[in-house]
Design goal:
alpha+beta, 178 residues, 8-stranded mixed beta sheet, disordered N terminus, Aminopeptidase, 6 helices
Length: 178
């Protein structure tokens, strides 16, 4: 029996520096928001997110990034004073039932404030309600802030094919609404 589409509430949290951050689900088709967010990233942030140079977002990739359905693909947006400060998402892995690949990106000017962690914490409840048991992370080995974040979450990291891979079992704390 398929799982029901998770209800994902918007919430407000505080970044480490006290900044108020609104966390909300990305709406299906929020193309302008995603395209604008991508355009505002530095070349280095784009490379770290997509694990390769990506000077522009192809139409196919943009379509994929906004094609959220609340069951197999969920994305959360972090907003600071109405500006998109970050986006995190999980996408269920078709070849590994119960697992989802996770990605998080925070725009350069908001990095280092703990917004990435807020976004990852906000993803957990929807993943648990969708029946997922494991988050899978792939990271560039030079992306030290993300590696530090993943270690702080207790993610076990290993090196495979030039990338750092992490796996995180979702616990009951992930099922609780943040």
């Amino acid at each position: 029996m398929p799982h029901a589409t998770p209800v994902i509430p918007a919430m407000t949290a505080r970044a480490r520096d006290g900044t108020e951050v609104r966390l909300r689900p990305l709406g299906r088709g929020e193309r302008d928001l995603v395209a604008g967010f991508f355009a505002g990233l530095s070349d280095d942030s784009r490379r770290r997110r997509f694990l390769q140079p990506m000077p522009r977002l192809s139409e196919t990739m943009l379509r994929h990034l906004v094609d959220v359905d609340g069951r197999r693909h969920v994305a959360m947006v972090a907003e600071v004073d109405g500006e998109c400060a970050g986006i995190a998402r999980w996408v269920a892995m078709p070849d590994e039932p119960g697992a989802a690949e996770v990605a998080v990106t925070v725009t350069d000017r908001f990095q280092g404030r703990g917004i990435g962690r807020l976004l990852l914490d906000a993803l957990g409840p929807s993943a648990a309600r969708a029946g997922l048991a494991t988050f899978v992370y792939l990271a560039d080995p030079t992306n030290l802030p993300v590696l530090y974040l993943l270690r702080s979450l207790g993610v076990q990291l290993s090196f495979h094919d030039g990338l750092v891979q992490g796996r995180q079992r979702l616990s009951p704390r992930h099922a609780a609404v943040a």
